Structures are given as structure tokens and as C-alpha cells.
């Protein structure tokens, strides 16, 4: 492996043992259910109202790929991935109350994440994003201070809920300041989707909620965050957007225009919204070259990083095959009309620079 050939996966998840234990004890979503039949995997139900839909009520299998570091490494080897920056999968601990038990769970999970990344079997190939007890801003700031001391942590993963009022909640500003102070990155990931008329009246399984609800959620949440003026007050805040920023690269011009023509917000920011959007980072989990081109043309390819969304979207037919979800993202980057140096940047070099990652000493 050389610098120009390094592949870094910045969008890859785990469910830590402490988290699975919590979900197994719960009787409401999010939760883990027993196998449908003996010998099968447990079932994971995490999305809002997922248990109420006929095509989603049994959730999805949650096997060793979700929690076993050796399974993560085997997946990386199969797809020629050199480094992964792992994060707890949604919905994190947004749903827990602001209690000492919640704060303690966040601390234990971050220690567990650090230990997983430092496991000798990983040979230096894993880094992580930590988890925050977002029901309390004060506890989250304290946890950021702790995460900043962990050698393999490079930031935190957050949803769009904040501490209950969205990312533009003024109460979150001390948290953003703490994250920026330590040069950590927020990996912003959707979970809640969007409420549209009759959006739950479908037998489409998880497909539309994931394909459309997730990116729409990101789009709206980040637009609100920008309009709060946070990037004027905390200009060093770094955010990595999942799924290439939802529809933001495509709709940035419309956001600029609508803000510029609305007297309620026209003078609120120092710059047009697209100015701030172009300073954010974007993963390349978009599956088609059109999306890669749009993001690269809008924000610059130097702001983009490869991701897989493992262990979600496994092959339906066989466990031995390469994953279509990974190969389609690789093909999208390769077929986007970018030069070799730009492709190498998206695949790995950008992540090495942005997240301050070191090349593994050996494979």
C-alpha cells in the first residue's frame, strides 16, 4: 500500500457490546428482537415506526458483522480498504434521558470504541468517531473533553435531533465550541427521516425511508444550522455530511435565492448559505457518478471522502460475494470524469489529511 493507493472508509458502523445489551433489554423501538427462527440472527428495529409497518415490523438481521472487529477487518480485506473510521450506528443514545446512567454509558462506549481501534488484531487500521449523551449539553461537552484524550478518536457522530430541538438549538453552541477547540470532526448522520403526508402508508420496506427520508433529513437539518449563524460564530467547526450531503449540492442555489429574498433572514448571515456549505466535508456514499460529479463540482473534490455504510446493505444472495453497495460507490467515483489524482484523494488521501490519519505500519 502506498499513499496514492490508500483507501479509507469514513462511513462504517458498529454496534458496541454495551449498546446491544441496552437494545436487547428494551421493549420499544429502538430494540433488538430474538431470531425469527432458531439458528438465525437477532433482529434489529431502529427506525421510527418501523415496528408498525407490515414490511418492516420484523426489522433486519443483526449478525456478527455489526459488532465483531474481525468481521470488520475481513470486510475491509475483501474490498481492499486500508483504514476505516468506525462509528456507532444510529440511533446512538439520543433516546435516553439526561441521567448519570446515560452519561456513564456514553463514557463506557467511547472507551470500548477506543479499545476496539487499539486491538492488536487491527494492526493500526481502525480509528473512530465517539458518541455523545446529547440529552445533556453539559455532559456532552465533558465527553468531548474525554474523547479528545483518546488517541484513535477523530471526532463524534451526531444525528439531527441535537438535545431535542434540532441542530440550530442555541443551547448546543458550547458543544460546537468544544468540538472546534479540539479540532474534532462531527460526522453528521440522519436517522429520523421526514414526515410527509401518508409517508408511512407504503409496503416499500425500508427502501424509501433510507433512499429519500435520510438525505432529505440531512438537507433540512444543515440548512437550519447554517441559518442559525453558527459558522459565523464558530468558523472552525468541522462537519462531515453523510450520503454526500443529501440534496444540498443540488439545491444550494435555491437555498441562496430563497434566503436572499426573505426579509426575515436576508441579512442574518455574513455570506450566502452556499459559502458555508462549500466549507463542509462530504462522504461519497451516493452510488452514482452523477451524485459524485454534483458534489465535486459544488464543494470541490478535496472535501470528499469514500465510505461504504458497512454493515448495512449486505448482498441478499450470498455472504461470500463482494458487496454491490461498495462496488457501486467505487464505480461512481471512477466514472465521474475526475483525474487520477482527484480519485486518489476521494478514495483515501483526503481522509488522511482531514482526519489526521496515519498509514498502517503493516498489513
Question: What does this molecule look like?
Answer:
This protein is an alpha/beta fold and 363 residues long. It contains twelve helices and eleven strands. The chain has helices at 17-25, 69-78, 100-118, 137-147, 173-181, 207-227, 230-233, 248-260, 273-277, 289-299, 324-334, 340-354, and strands spanning 8-14, 31-33, 42-45, 60-62, 83-88, 126-131, 153-158, 185-188, 238-241, 281-283, 304-305. It has an eight-stranded parallel β-sheet. A three-stranded antiparallel β-sheet has the order 2-3-4, with helices on one face. Strand 6 (126-131), helix 4 (137-147) and strand 7 (153-158) form a beta-alpha-beta unit. Helix 3 packs parallel to helix 4 and helix 10 (289-299) packs across helix 11 (324-334). The radius of gyration is 20 Å and the shape is globular. The termini are close together.
Write out key terms for the chains shown:
12 helices, 38% helix, three-stranded antiparallel β-sheet, alpha/beta
Describe the structure concisely.
The chain has 363 residues and is α/β, with parallel strands linked by helices.
- Report the radius of gyration as a whole number of Å: 20 Å
Distance between the termini: 8 Å
Strand-and-helix sequence, N→C? EHEEEHEHEHEHEHHEHHEHEHH
Quickly count the helices.
12
**By helix and strand content, what is the structural category?**
alpha/beta
- Spatial strand sequence of the major β-sheet: 1-5-6-7-8-9-10-11
Instruction: Look at the structure and give the mean pLDDT.
Output: 93
Query: Per DSSP, what share of the residues sits in E-state strands of 2 or more residues?
Result: 5-15%
Which regions are unreliable across 5 or more consecutive residues at pLDDT < 50? none
| Strands, count | 11
Form type:
globular
Helix % is: 25-40%
Main sheet properties: 8 strands, parallel
